[in-house]
Write the structure tokens for this entry.
Amino acid sequence: MRNAKLFAGTSHLALAQRVATHLGVELAPVSLRRYTNRETTADLGCSVRDKDVYILQSGSMTTNDHLMEALIMVSAAKLASARKITVVMPYFPYSKQSKKKKRRGAISGKLVAGMLGVAGADHVITMDLHASQMSGFFTVPVDNLFSEPTLARWLAEHVVKEAGADHVAVVAKNAGGAKRVTALADRLGAGFALIHTDNAPSTRPFSRTPSTVALHTLPQTPRGPGMFATAVSAAMAPGSPLRASIERAESDEGSDGALDVRTIVDAGGRGKKKGKAKKAAKAKGADVDAAAAPRRAAFYVSPLTAAQEQPPTPEALELGDAGTPGVEISEVLNQSDDDDDDALDASRLLEMVNTPADEAGPSDLVHNAEALAQAAAGILEQRTHRALSLGRRPAAVPVDTPPSSDVPPMQRITSGTHLQSDPPVRPPVAVTSWHKKRTARITLVGDVSDKVVLLLDDMIDHPSSFLTAAEHLMVHCGARAVCIVAAHGLFSGSSLGEIEICPYVQSVIVTNSFPIPDELTTASSKLIQIDIAPVLAEAIRRNHNGESISYLFDRNPY
Amino acid sequence: MSSNSIRILAGNSHPALAKLIAKRLGTDLANVTVSKYSNQETAVTIGESVRDEDVYIIQSGCGEINDHLMELLIMINACKTASARRITAVLPCFPYARQDKKDKSRAPISAKLVANMLTVAGADHVITMDLHASQIQGFFDRPVDNLYGEPSVLRYIRENIPDWKNAIIVSPDAGGAKRATSIADHLDLDFALIHKERKKANEVSRMVLVGDVKDKVAILVDDMADTCGTLGLAAKTLMDNGASAVYAIVIHGVLSGKALDVINNSVLTRVVVTNTIPHAEKKKICPKLDTIDVSAVLAEAIRRTHNGESVSYLFGHATI
């Protein structure tokens, strides 16, 4: 690209590197630092005078820092007399806050759009905005790209090809996603269905998979010794994923932040290694996985637990500092695909914190922790026996026997469920959740019996609503398998862990628009990331050459 | 002291609704003349002082939509230059609301343009109802109160549809599924969905029903009905699938083109629209039309806005 410079913020270097490779350019040098008072500063390392500047920055788990970084880079480029500044945000931060919820909500998506315009952006390229109306928030042109062609091609080549279009159904887990689902279903030639969860405030849908039940009872125990303590220390043991991610976060803060191109290349290479490692693990079989199980169980401990553990060990303190605020916010926010439930989620969070300890005594704790480990080990073992089983019903998925039947909450959920022949519309099923007061009515509108279900949404963060839907589809509706499909995979907190131990989900397919730490992707065997760098690169190329971008809306660039 | 009282101004789009609102607020419509010069330019005369008053201008997006929009903008601007303290544009049906995104290449976002025009003209606040997409609120940098017709619809169903407990709520397209499920939840009814493959605007090719409507009263729910092609086909699809009767409830009944013929010749038992758009004449031609009066909601929103009370109460409750 003549007269163009591609800069990358620190949010998602791996993606930036891939985009640069596809464009056949080097990432332009930039030094991004933090002052000791945590202010960000950017120093463009080459002249941009009269150049077209492209700044790639995705949303991330430290959204505000990375947003600020992008704004400062834009501003720096503007002051350095760039001809045109294009911000490329594969995942647009704050895009979920695109409307006033019923009362007094801020439209923060609009605010971010305004901030980019004020900073000096002349053009914005983004992908799969939560609501496409958001492009009206900007005063500058916006290209809202779609990951659907890319995802659809992968799904067509892998899922539809194996199962046959007649045996694939695309399912929305709430009514708001119905449009997206019908579009993908039409493209794949597959059927579609809709899950309806009764949203009446008195019967807030709240059902958890067994695994999650165990997870959420854990933090309520009063400083229990034994399993839990070991779990925490295991989680914090040197070399464990959680520990590593925290260390990484710290070093990010501590370092001077200048981009190290070598690490970028490393990041690219690690992706390949990961694939090999996974294959190797599968080949070795159950033993390896069983050995891995405790480590995994540890990894699933919610950071919230550590914050509540009193008195805190130094490690726990560290963990609490790094994790708790993020978890709280995500707990409040991320449930809200149903869009109107934020307040309820907040109350749920409070309730979760305030639940008296006697509901989950120390004995329960041991039970649950053991169950957790057992469940994890069991599923892992089963998975090794499962070949690429999209074509037929995986024998490993325990439908009528819960993963470990000695835990009361699990029994509550799975008891009285059986596979049966399926009328197109099922009566609503009451799912009693871990919390006795709460029941939810889930109805499937449409037919998924003996089909591979693609549970589609535009983004996935905290997976509980997906897992509830998957459980319903597998247990009550006779689905052959459930794959979660989303454009943006955020996976905050212990999300990937919860998916990993949920027996009802076979895989989760997302694009790499949002940075997920390598430690987490390696630890998750169900996660499949589809590369969308070609789409972004092609959009940048076409934009730079003044060609039409609409070609990309329903086709793949390569 | 007469300062800062409510002044209700009305354009030519929907005088009947404006009168109803003014009546509910216990005031008269302000004396305004809106006419046209012979060269078709709109001319506005505000016939009484609005200095330091709280001005509400009621204009719906319907009929001669561009003329009415221009009337509204000129009225806002006239009040602005006449030193009104605050100007609130009340748009029961927001014009150009369907052009709210770049749904295909190079499509204009005209709703955003309208929002900018209202702001530039001098509107300080906007009250509207059932925006096609609530993201349109974000097109303004002024406060926007998006009211809901849903409570009124719920009440209509409970009071006017016999055997509503044996009904099923149906969304005629995937985009409206959320609206339909919300109503279904409140009434504790099932819901179904019709998926239409649309090749061109206002033209529907094939319909797929998802859900079971057999021997049930089907209630189609949507936010807007224009040519009613979708509604007619959806009703037919529902009857073919064994529904015992089909009602349609729509917030904004644009009912343009052949809509009345389509309704008259369709299997629909009744088509219910709110009076955000005038349809008194149409009712004479089409006996299947019925009205839900939403003037109370708008009047109450105006009253609450004027008095600085919370408007969110209206989102879940129908006013009397």
The domain at 150-292 of chain B is CATH 3.40.50.2020 (Rossmann fold). The radius of gyration of chain B is 20 Å.
